[in-house]
Structure formats: C-alpha cells, structure tokens
C-alpha cells in the first residue's frame, strides 16, 4: 500500500491510500511516522497509524477542553464520550493527562474550595454536592474540606444578610431569615447560629413599632371581614406571631390600638 495524497484540513491531515482509502490523522501522527506522499505502508503499520491517530486526536481534543479552565477527570471523560471516542482510547488519554499533571481531581477540589473561600458564599455541604457532581470522590472532598476554616466566610455572608434584611423584618423573623439563608447556602445549622449570635444588631424600637403597626393594619383589614372581638384579636395575634413578632411586642401594639 502507498500513500497517494496528504492534504491539510484545518487542524487535521487527510491521508489517502492507493487513491481510494482515506482517513484523518493529527500533525503528531505525521511527525511520529514520517508520513509523506509515496510512502509504502504495510497492513500492520497502517493499523498502528490509525490507532495512534485516534489516540492523538482524542488527547488534542481533551487538551483543548482543558485550555479554557481546570476540569475533573469525569468532565474530560464525558466530553470525549460525547465526541464518540471509544472507552479504551479515553482511558489511555486520561492516564496520560494524569501522568502529565493536566488532570488532578484533588487539586481541582482544592482550587474550587479556595476560590469559594476567597470570592464565594457557599458552605461545605453545597461545595461537596457540587464536587460530587463533577465526579470527585467523596473521601477526597472530605479531606480537602477538613483543611478549611469556614468561620470567616460564614461571618462575612451573615453580615451581608444582616445589611440586606435589617429594619425590614421583625427581630424573630430576622433571625430565622438569616439562619435559613445561611443553611440554604450550605453552612450547617451550628455555624449559622454562631454567626447570627455574633452579629451586632441594632434594635431600633421605632423601626420595630413601624413594622408591627403596618403588619397589624393589614391583618386587621384581612380578618375583620370575618371576625370581631376576641376572635379577631386572636387571628391578628397569630398572624403577627407567624411573621416573627414577639408576643410582648404584639400585646403592646394591641393595647395601643385599644
């Protein structure tokens, strides 16, 4: 068999054998086997060239995928599968990339966690879920998370939440809102509770009075259509309590109303 044509096609080369059999190879393949027009090939060598070309093409594609940002092994494997490379080829590419330190799931986990500590707002639980979705082993994630102190981060996030909600919610609702928001971001309850307890909250009685009067007026308008007297006060009290006002604050507001 003889190579009758080699033609560059964007990032690949089209190789033609005996004027009819055509296939694509990478530049690495051309260089490795010194392919040129009129070169004679045996059946065994042709098969070897095609195998190497597939491996080289898959590796180049993986490196292109990695050039944009750091990836996990699972991400690279799924990317190559999407491009219909065989499992055997993918496994070899993954092995070579790991050996060359292009792929390292532990470093991937460490980088994501550190980035979150520096610029993010997520707790350990959500970070672990995200890394698990990337195919990182649970034991690797746990080891990396155990080396990080989330205390300063949860304090920073709680400060932002306080700034957002203070003077907009009653004291009880403010505590529930901040703690719930922190746990929703992946911090555990004790971390969230400690962060809230450490906040310097301005208990402005005038603001709280304005808030409860506004909510009480809304509740009265709502329930006075169906209730009156004691039943009306009970429904208004229950409504305000659900919104985070203390019973003392509610009773004081009701007395002022009377």
Descriptive notes:
This protein has 258 residues and is mainly alpha-helical. The chain has four domains: 3-99, Arc Repressor Mutant, subunit A (Orthogonal Bundle); 105-145, Arc Repressor Mutant, subunit A (Orthogonal Bundle); 151-197; 205-257. It contains 13 helices and three strands; from the N terminus they run βββααααααααααααα. Strands 1-2-3 form a three-stranded antiparallel β-sheet. A hairpin with a 2-residue loop joins strand 1 and strand 2 (12-17). Helix 12 packs across helix 13. The N and C termini lie far apart (105 Å). The mean pLDDT is 89.
Q: From the 3D coordinates, which CATH architecture of the largest domain would you assign?
A: Orthogonal Bundle
Gap from first CA to last CA? 105 Å
State the order of secondary-structure elements, H for helix, E for strand: EEEHHHHHHHHHHHHH
The spatial strand order of the largest sheet comes to 1-2-3
CATH class of the largest domain: Mainly Alpha
Keywords:
258 residues, mainly alpha, 4 domains, three-stranded antiparallel β-sheet, 3 strands, elongated, RecX_HTH_2nd, RecX_HTH_3rd, Regulatory protein RecX
In short:
With 258 residues, the chain is mainly alpha-helical. The protein folds into four domains: 3-99, Winged helix-like DNA-binding domain superfamily/Winged helix DNA-binding domain (Arc Repressor Mutant, subunit A, Orthogonal Bundle), CATH 1.10.10; 105-145, Arc Repressor Mutant, subunit A (Orthogonal Bundle), CATH 1.10.10; 151-197; 205-257. The protein contains 13 helices and three strands.
